[in-house]
Amino acid sequence: MKWQEARELFPNQFLLVSILDYHEEGDKKIVDEVAPIRTISEKDANKEFFRAKEGTIVYHTSNEEFVIYIRRDPLMKVRRI
Question: What highest taxon heads this organism's lineage (predicted)?
């Protein structure tokens, strides 16, 4: 479903979603389609954010656009599992 649809179905909530489709604009990843998995309570949002598996993320539906900023730091090493 489109991010706007998810916002309407789950207003003003943290949501664990699977990212289905996105496009990149410079240093931003703009998420277009998501599959909602479940809502997350405000007190558990931080913990769930860091426990999210690859391809999923916790995001708040108060955000009009679903934007992930890409950090391209040549000195930072990222280990993919």
Answer: Bacteria
Residue 78 lies in a domain: no
Residue-number span of the structural domain to which 54 is assigned: 3-69
pTM above 0.85, yes or no: no
| Average pLDDT of span 25-39 | 95
Considering its fold, how many domains does the chain have in total? 1
